[in-house]
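Example record

One chain of 89 residues, shown exactly as stored in the release files.
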Amino acid sequence: MNVLTIPYPNEILSALQQNQAEFESKARLLLAIKLYEQGQLTTGLAAKIAGIPRVTFILLLGSYGLSPFGETAEELEEELAHARAACRG
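Predicted structure tokens for this chain:
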């Protein structure tokens, strides 16, 4: 496994009131979420970057306003309405 090292000043830890492990864990999660949001990674690969199980990553997406289906709530509602109309025939 490759390791990414990003230097950062200690003042960041103080400003965010986090220890090194908390900051680095959050940074990995945010990187993974952004790459997923941009469509560059699947939920499985993004979860690996974040260092968490895929199911946990999928559940966390909602906290950041993202859907594991890659669609907004409005788009999902619209698709559901189309599916219901098609079933009614």
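Notes: The mean pLDDT is 89.
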